[in-house]
Specification:
With about 220 residues, this protein is of the alpha/beta class. It is about 35% helix and about 20% strand. It has a single domain, classed as P-loop containing nucleotide triphosphate hydrolases (Rossmann fold, 3-Layer(aba) Sandwich), CATH 3.40.50. Helix 1 packs across helix 6. Keywords: Cell cycle, Cell division, GTP-binding, Magnesium, Metal-binding, Nucleotide-binding, Septation.
Amino acid sequence: MTDLTPPAADAPDPAFEAGRLLFARPWGFVRGIVDMGALPGATGTEIAFAGRSNVGKSSLINALTGQSVLARTSNTPGRTQELNLFRPEGGDDLLVVDMPGYGYAKAPKAHVDAWNRLVFSYLRGRPTLRRVYVLIDARHGIKTNDDDVLDLLDKAAVSYQIVLTKADKIGTADLEALEAATAEKIRKRPAAFPEVLATSSEKGRGIPELRAAIWTLTQE
């Protein structure tokens, strides 16, 4: 006899478990590249993380994969100077790209220009890039350099989603106000995904939601 009982209203979203399993596999560093020609073949789903220097990209990648030292973290802004690629070991269904941080004023101009050329070439020329997660420090909100990157993504028609980092560093009311203000600020941007995610790599906040969101992309 068929069970017609509807699922409980508070039943867990299956995407959360699928996202957990996606990142529960062993992950490894593929390579760091400074030239588009060194990118691996465009297969499977590809996502990238962008953000100002020291916004917490490496920490977020480590939190997603549950590996504390997969992506190198540093308190020195501007240390990541190349595209760093990560894959689950033995799998080619998902490629994670940690992009160089932007907005670090003290870096030599020649280095900044070289990093920007690499990043912009990557954004414009990667057919399997499904979404860029643009990380914004919850303590500061969207700054001018962030707006410049969002303009580029809109122009290139690359889908992106705002992820607030270090959400544990501000109060609940301030965080809720920031989420609402950020959502309103990107509402009319053509390539922006409307939902804003708040995360804390240190406390684990928002990590299951982000994993689920990434898994959903792999199914589309």
